[in-house]
User: Which sequence fits this backbone?
């Protein structure tokens, strides 16, 4: 980590051509000599090119990502050969350089010396059950551990090279900490995922574009090992950015091939957006680092990853621990914006999670387990019906609003909630207390006046029962009329005319809407109507590359017809339940990447691709 710069109905196509051949491991330098060649992927490469759509489903609603959206809270583990140095490197001149997982690069440790120290790495005290126990005690529902960081060192017994914990360490060669962690996590009902760095400081073929395909073959072989041997629920990529020392040749096209390959290995995998170039069109979810967005992220699920102190890897000198109260508030902040919170621990050279980490995690778990306060996090999301207040955070789950109060009012004082739509608050109670809460209509919302004191220092939760008003039954739509042209100007006779279930397409570089349509230089028009289930002000959101415009009831509401890279555009529109509002969407692909998605959201409607049943081809 530490970036050096501040439908399941659609199946993906195309295992990349570069892995169609056997994945033979090339020779590596001392300390990383290749072991027997990796096997080729078992699956034959499906067809690619024209007609391919890489959008597999809508991550906002799919069964595949349901666990990720519900669980909200996970443990990140940064653990590797760098952990052996515990954050400090003594140079030959006696001076000390400090860093953690970046110590090899930041302290300019020579390759031979770094390999020498890695050979003494012996995390004999790594206890998978204790690690999983700490996560479970914290209320965490999933774990993501570094399988390979930027130094290229694999933390599982890979067959691709010998630069790994089994073959290049003092660790017991009979042990496999990833297998141990998988077993313990499965027993505890916790999902396991793997971090994998694309950027590799150790592989000699990585930096040179001429030899990069050889590295890429080995990377694919290692990822196949991880998927086949450990069945992860999630893959968390990193190291996709353009940089040097060494040069990073990774491109968006490389990301497209890799994501397609992974979907072929396991269609249920959840993958972060660093598999590509950290864009809203890459992977399933965004990855803000050491920050929490101020609102739900447009167009993509998201997860904020953060440290417990100032480092990802273990640094013996770092005692700058965040308080459990601030950590609980971070978790509430992310959940109230429909995000996940991935909180990091860094085991030491012996594999032990520092006690201050364990203590704070336990205190977070105590808060979550107390009086049902975890309902403000698990399965909850954007408050939506009300504005986020300055006195805390509000999340929503069904007809319940969870107002997590971090600034409790003085005796007799009230907390104001500004409504974003017509709602009726029919009940209120303080979790963990029998005190009364008076609810009074006031101006643009409601005043909540509790009778007693806060229940704890981190956050006191007031559970509200809210009636958001009528919601119509799901519609019976079949989608929109789609016309596809073999030019970017929407001219001539359409080459394809059909009903499209929804507007959720990632044709990327290699795909297109149909086999007779080229990957570049095409356009699409959708026409029909949209019928909402609620009468509210909606936000229509497009995610597009290259050109897009949207008309609603004959009015142009989104107009970004200048060729652009991946862009998110929005419009506020009033929609009435039971009314079919005319809808026209036009899209053009010039060259390169091709994406077109149409989402909606409102105070009472979570963000999602506008579903088929609410679209009509007229």
Assistant:
């Amino acid at each position: 980590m530490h970036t050096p710069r501040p439908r399941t109905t659609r199946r993906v196509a195309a295992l990349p051509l570069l892995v169609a051949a056997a994945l033979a491991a090339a020779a590596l330098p001392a300390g990383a000599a290749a072991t027997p060649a990796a096997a080729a992927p078992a699956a034959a490469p499906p067809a690619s090119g024209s007609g391919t759509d890489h959008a597999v489903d809508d991550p906002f609603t799919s069964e595949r990502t349901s666990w990720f959206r519900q669980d909200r809270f996970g443990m990140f583990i940064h653990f590797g050969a760098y952990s052996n140095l515990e954050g400090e490197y003594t140079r030959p001149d006696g001076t000390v350089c400090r860093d953690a997982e970046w110590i090899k690069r930041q302290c300019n440790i020579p390759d031979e010396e770094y390999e020498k120290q890695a050979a003494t790495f012996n995390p004999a005290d790594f206890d998978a059950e204790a690690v999983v126990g700490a996560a479970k005690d914290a209320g965490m529902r999933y774990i993501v551990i570094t399988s390979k960081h930027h130094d290229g060192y694999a933390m599982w017994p890979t067959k691709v090279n010998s630069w790994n914990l089994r073959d290049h360490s003092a660790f017991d060669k009979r042990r496999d900490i990833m297998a141990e962690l998988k077993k313990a996590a499965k027993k505890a009902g916790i999902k396991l995922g793997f971090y994998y760095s694309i950027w590799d400081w150790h592989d000699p073929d990585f930096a040179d574009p001429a030899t990069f395909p050889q590295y890429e073959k080995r990377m694919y072989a290692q990822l196949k090992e991880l998927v086949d041997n450990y069945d992860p629920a999630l893959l968390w990529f990193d190291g996709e950015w353009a940089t040097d020392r060494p040069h990073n040749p990774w491109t968006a096209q490389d990301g497209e091939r890799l994501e397609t390959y992974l979907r072929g290995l396991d269609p249920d995998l959840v993958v972060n957006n660093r598999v590509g170039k950290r864009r809203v069109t890459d992977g399933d979810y965004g990855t803000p680092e050491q920050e929490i967005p101020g609102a739900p992220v447009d167009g993509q699920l998201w997860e904020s990853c953060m440290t417990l102190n100032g480092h990802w890897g273990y640094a013996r000198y770092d005692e700058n621990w965040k308080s459990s109260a601030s950590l609980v508030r971070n978790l509430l902040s992310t959940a109230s914006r429909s995000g996940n919170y991935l909180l990091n621990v860094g085991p030491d050279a012996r594999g032990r999670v520092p006690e201050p980490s364990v203590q704070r995690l336990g205190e977070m778990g105590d808060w979550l387990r107390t009086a049902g306060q975890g309902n403000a996090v698990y399965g909850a999301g954007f408050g939506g019906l009300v504005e986020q207040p300055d006195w805390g955070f509000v999340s929503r789950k069904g007809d319940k609003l969870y107002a997590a109060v971090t600034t409790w009012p003085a005796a007799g004082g009230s907390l104001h909630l500004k409504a974003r739509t017509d709602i009726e608050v029919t009940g209120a109670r303080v979790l963990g207390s029998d005190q009364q809460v008076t609810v009074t209509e006031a101006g643009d919302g409601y005043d909540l006046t509790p009778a007693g004191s806060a229940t704890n220092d981190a956050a006191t939760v007031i559970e509200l029962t809210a009636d958001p008003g009528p919601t119509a039954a799901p519609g019976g739509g079949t989608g929109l009329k789609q016309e596809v042209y073999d030019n970017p100007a929407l001219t001539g006779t359409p080459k394809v005319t059909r009903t499209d279930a929804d507007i959720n397409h990632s044709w990327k570089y290699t795909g297109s809407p149909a086999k007779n349509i080229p990957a570049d230089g095409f356009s699409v028009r959708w026409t029909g109507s949209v019928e909402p289930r609620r009468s509210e002000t909606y936000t229509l959101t497009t995610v597009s590359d290259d050109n897009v415009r949207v008309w609603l009831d004959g009015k142009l509401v989104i107009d970004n017809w200048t060729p652009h890279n991946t862009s998110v555009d929005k419009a506020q529109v009033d929609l009435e339940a039971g009314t079919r509002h005319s809808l026209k969407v036009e899209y053009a692909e010039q060259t390169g990447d091709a994406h077109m998605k149409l989402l909606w959201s409102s105070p009472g409607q979570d963000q999602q691709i506008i579903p088929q049943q609410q679209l009509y081809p007229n």
In short: The CA atoms of residues 332 and 377 lie 6 Å apart.
